[in-house]
Request: fold
Amino acid sequence: MKGLSRLINWLASLKVAIVLFILIAIGSAIGTAIPQNEPSSIYLSKFATNKFLGLINGDLLIDLQLDHVYSSFWFLGLIFWLSISLIVCSWRRQWPTLKKAIAWVDYKDPKQIQRLVISQTFKVNKPSNNISKVENYLINYGWQVKKNSSRLAARKGVIGRVGPPLVHLGLILLMFGATFGALKGERLEKFLAPDRSLSLLSPDGINKINLKLNQFEIDRGPNGEAEQFRSNLIISNNINEKIYKKEISVNHPLRFQGITIYQADWSLAAITIQIDNSPKLQLPLQKIDELGQQVWGVLVPTIDKTFEPFLLTLSNEQGPIAIFNQQGNSIGVTRPGGDSIPIGEKKLKIINVLPSSGILIKHDPGVPIVYLGFSITLIGSILSIISTKQLWIIAEEDNNIVHIGGLSNRNLSGFATQFPSILKVIVTS
Reply:
């Protein structure tokens, strides 16, 4: 039994909780520094020569589960450990402290009051009348009062003692919700071009949701860099067949029937060209990582003997669009809607470039629990600020003496400032 008691005391230790918080913070920092949930090939190539922290290559990074930190066994283990520590601490310390704070403390001996940091003893004419007047005064100022014939106990701000246990409960719910979401959550990332749609099943597996991209816009700054992405979505389901039109952008997701839709990224889907007076041709664009992180292109094959195959490359939907021949020599540069470029005996015109929206769809069943935990933690933190003040008065009728004293769990100096106003009620009675 002694071993179990020591284990429980160790789990409830503040030092253990602090160490766990630090380790979780370090793990979260690693998860922020390393892109998460990418294919293993990306980590193997990226960290082959440029090791993480100069020590960890791609293989070791995967073995340590640093590619999915928040669902790794060691991170979830730390979360579980901290949850157990908080539960034990609440059970061994917070709950008994709360029960003790809620119970009334009745001082019957004047010596008990005289031992308090804030106390006073003086003579009055009618002690019982004085206590009654103090009782009315305290009630008018929001104190709870419990009065006996020659004694009075009062308290104010007891609700503040509920704060610490609520903070513990909120943190436990936060960690449980985050863990539940990491284990049971699902995510899907797709690139959608305008007028393209995506069909999904709702988390219950019954409701079919159709997601269509109506319009996609990229807000660019004066230097041409993307500043914001906006996707105008049309959503419908097979239950009430109602159509919803919503816009999402970066940091402004859409929550719909248990799923959250984020604006994640952007890409280039297709380019529309015209050669001489031919019909307009829409060709799919492919990302060319060998030419840069944000470079797309398409190889236009030979249609007849009047020109050879050529390559179109571009970095955004506004251009410029570079054109290269088979030998890799530049043929020219143009923009969507710009002038035609001669290719052999023909002329090439770029009609437009079709961007696509990167849509991230998440189903996280832990979100409601996380929100509930955050709300409880916030309420508990606010309540914890409230100081609990207690006051006792004992009257000695035979000697015409009144003993008064009080204490506060925090802001004792503020209570000491208020104490004279209570004394004044007794003195002037």
